[in-house]
Amino acid sequence: MLIESYDLEIEVSTHSTAHFEYEAHARLQVDISAALPYLNATLSRGIYLPEKNALSWRHEGHNIGFWPYKISVDHLDSKEEAREIVERLVGMVNQVWEKRDEIEPDRTTHKRLQPLELYRLLPRINCKRCGEETCFNFSLKLAAAQAELASCRPLYEDETYRTQREQLENLLAVKWPAL
Ligand code: SF4
């Protein structure tokens, strides 16, 4: 097991003015640098920066950062959620590390998600059910991890959008990777 233990720090986020949020930092006793290219190969739309020895990943509305001795996550509603997500992230790193012989490491830096790429897959009917005036506005928020895909109800209620929804889920890494 790569990460056997960690110290968890949970603090009130200073970045969010919209509502009360937490961010959490798992301080590791082991350097996970060697695992980052394997994580990069596994996570949809992770952004690996080899020169900084860091990997960022947007998932379920959270900005997640993997560093040599730290894993950070923000946009957390409660301390319980912080503990649960950090535990899952640590478990994921350990699983990827266990399976590294089956994974081709990826040391490239993936492109950032582009709103237009998302917009093309949305229903583009501007129904406003997500709270946005247009699907394009929603795509801007999706790309910035400020909106959840599930807020677009037509995608989930109308089976004709199924393929688009699955493509969006992959792009946005809505699901945890199957390891
Ligand atoms: S709910 Fe979906 S289809 Fe309706 S405006 Fe929002 S993004 Fe577009």
Mean pLDDT: 92
The global form is globular
- Alpha carbon gyration radius: 17 Å
Helix proportion range:
25-40%
Provide the low-confidence segments as ranges: none
Keywords:
single chain; about 180 residues; alpha+beta; TATA-Binding Protein; 3-methyladenine DNA Glycosylase II, Chain A, domain 3; 2 domains; six-stranded antiparallel beta sheet; 6 helices; 6 strands; about 30% helix; binds iron/sulfur cluster
Present the secondary structure layout.
Layout lengths: L5 E7 L9 E7 L7 H7 L4 E3 L4 E6 L2 E6 L2 E7 L2 H20 L16 H5 L15 H9 L9 H5 L4 H10 L8
Antiparallel strand pairs: 1-2, 2-6, 3-4, 4-5, 5-6
The chain binds iron/sulfur cluster.
The site of iron/sulfur cluster (SF4) has 14 residues, from helix 4 and helix 5.
Describe the structure.
The protein is 31% helix and 20% strand. With 179 residues, the chain is of the alpha+beta class. It folds into two domains: 6-102, TATA-Binding Protein (2-Layer Sandwich), CATH 3.30.310.10; 115-171, 3-methyladenine DNA Glycosylase II, Chain A, domain 3, CATH 1.10.15. A six-stranded antiparallel sheet has the order 1-2-6-5-4-3, covered by helices on one side. Strand 5 (62-67) and strand 6 form a beta hairpin. The two termini are 15 Å apart. The model has no long low-confidence stretch (mean pLDDT 92). The structure holds iron/sulfur cluster (SF4).
Offer a quick outline of the entry:
By secondary structure, this protein is an alpha+beta fold. The chain has helices at about 35-40, 80-100, 115-120, 135-145, 155, 160-170; strands spanning about 5-10, 20-30, 45-50, 55-60, 60-65, 70-75. The chain is globular and about 50 Å long.
